[in-house]
Design a protein that fits this description.
The protein is α+β, with helices and mostly antiparallel strands. The protein contains three helices and eight strands.
Length: about 140
Amino acid sequence: MLFLTVAPGRAAAGPTHIARVDDYIDAPRALFGRTRAELEQRLGAPIGERRRGDGVALRWPGLEVALSRSARVAAVVVSASGRPLPHGLDIGTPRARVETVLGEPLEATDDRWFYPDADGFPNSVEFFFRDGRVIRIEWRFWAE
C-alpha cells in the first residue's frame, strides 16, 4: 500500500496529469533508445560501464542507463541539464514547475517526488530536489 506524504507548507497540487506523466515516463526511451545498440547509435560510445545486478550500467556525461541482462533499458538517471526532456522538466527546474506540469505526485517528501505510470510500477519517474529545484531525475522500466 502506498501513501501520499505532503511536505509541510505545500499547497494542494491538484490531480495528477496521468497522460503527461505517462509521456514523461516514456521520454527517455524515446529520446535515447530502448536497447544498448540504440543507445550507442544515438549517444555514441559510453564513457564508463559497470556491472549492475544481472545487467550493466552505462555512463555518458550527466546520464546513466541501466540495462537488463537482455540489453533492454531498465533505468535512466539524468543528473545534468541539457537533455531535450518534455515540458522543459530538466535538472534545475523549480519544484513548482514540476507540479504545474505533472500535478500531484503519488508520494512526496521535501526532497523526492514519485510518479508511477498509469499501468503501475515499475514504470515510474522520481524527481529529487535540493533548495526547491530538481537535482536528479530517475526513471525505472520493466525489462526482461
